């Protein structure tokens, strides 16, 4: 005891990317922030796990995890258990590593997302100076599947001409559309399309104005605007057009795909932001569940209780604000509501994906229309180039919105994705592995302005983090009552005379 | 191709991480080394993620990129990325506080288990100015008690004990005083000398750890430098605020 502050400006519960960005932002503003997380690792739902942690999460029982936690605690306290002590549950197969240093070569991201090269998260990383400590690499390709074959998504006029994805008849119209996208400036009317009002016309009408047929508009909407279903067609054209602009600009930055991905996996992002926050004086405690939120007489947050990470004695600290991810409110209908269910399969492969020119990384979209579904199936692929697995392995995630949650066979909804990976009909090669998870998506019921408990949203089905940064901005505004402006961080004080 | 703001620097840029219990003087050691300065009652680390300082040797110049924990070690919450790809680690304890040596040993075994192969580890007993001796250069033991000018306690960890442990584990070993500056320069020079030639290369290449140097080096650990949660810890006692919480 005696080592936590008596009072914090905010207690942030969970170390997911949303929470860690906010923590970094508040820290930079000089606020006193305490961050706790029930897990033993950073990142919550947006973590990257090593292969042993994957086994613990997906292959162990609750009882095995509990026994393991006690064992780790004893070891930490210096009771010589030794490195050789057997873990409480099964270890990964030897092909994935035999000891911690080998398990640690794996950084398996739980959320199958990439960063848009020109997106808001990239901007935030840059402004906060986090890019100084993180290496981001380009993702090798962006594909859309048609007739069972992946095609590169064309994003420039030249590509529109050469792409066999676009019919000859459509090439001219596609070129015009991409020209419009490339030139569009909100405040320059000469770049606007005659007859198209982004706020009054729907996207369906916009496609018609550009003469784009059903398939062309389908792949634009799904593989460039990145909508998971077709509900956007009857909404105003502004949002889809902005999303297509983001795609094309992101594409233009590095050339092969609009996506970038951190070396060592997505878990780097929350870790780096947490470090930034710590550099500003933020306090972090892992292995620390939220025990209780305390409220004053008027129903506003006044403190939180949690077991001390080292002594396990209950600690109470004062705070006026609590920001937390939804996993800390499971079963509390007054706090969170379920807005959807996803199914995700993380696959360890020993081969690249057919039809991608053996790309070391890729995003592949199987549009709903190709499989008779309402929602697209996404495949994301990364490999040892990103230091996320040993050489010779590939990490692929297949995910989609679960359309029949009660069917009793959610795996079947991923089947077209598994077929793409060569894992159709339950096939699994030697030294290959699948981790399948049904994920509930939650959002807060209240905006938090009444009781000062601000809850973030789950990481959604999209292929990137734009909705995550939206959530960060939204929470910031609810907490502070003003828009988030991230200041360009001044270069760090360094005695760097070179 | 990649959006890397940080182009490779001098070929002899070396990532050094600091580890050790809170309040043993990790940041003070660095401050002494980098600025030749000392602040009494220094606040816990806030401010910079890392500092750089060159160390010129006859044969080469090593530019240390010195990473401070930013206090994340307090509650066993040091992110794995902290010591990823570190070529050298300074594991610090306080010679007036035996528990801090226990923690230091814990960090050493953590590094040996998790960090890059060939990492050079230096064990440093700090606060030598509080020992009741007019300081030799950290060589042999002198056990003594009784305070000299220092207002606080006295030596509680024998030099010989720590030295024996360091020898056993193949660590560099020094006793230092960040306050007087004694031996601080020597530690960094010794580290600079001990870093295997073949691990000196530009930072941040996409090839990553897979091919990073297998050179000898003290305390060579197994495996490729990757992550791994730091399940271990250091606890209690640091300067921030520090009152028992009791709200509402």
Automatic annotation (TrEMBL), chain A:
Protein name as catalogued: Rab GDP dissociation inhibitor
Any Pfam family hit: GDI
Family, per entry: Belongs to the Rab GDI family.
Biased composition (Basic and acidic residues): 69-79
Residue span of region Disordered: 69-95
Superkingdom per UniProt: Eukaryota
GO molecular function: Rab GDP-dissociation inhibitor activity
InterPro entries with a match to the protein in the record: FAD/NAD-bd_sf, GDP_dissociation_inhibitor, RabGDI
Cellular component GO terms, alphabetical: cytoplasm
GO biological process: protein transport; small GTPase-mediated signal transduction; vesicle-mediated transport
Native source organism of the sequence: Tuber aestivum
From TrEMBL, chain B:
A Pfam cross-reference name: Ras
Keyword vocabulary terms for this entry: Nucleotide-binding
Keyword Nucleotide-binding: yes
Cross-referenced SUPFAM superfamilies: P-loop containing nucleoside triphosphate hydrolases
GO MF term set: GTP binding; GTPase activity
PROSITE patterns, alphabetized: RAB, RAS, RHO
Keyword Cytoplasm: no
Alphabetical list of InterPro entries matching this protein: P-loop_NTPase (IPR027417), Small_GTP-bd (IPR005225), Small_GTPase (IPR001806)
Entry-linked PANTHER family: PTHR47978
Official protein name in the record: Uncharacterized protein
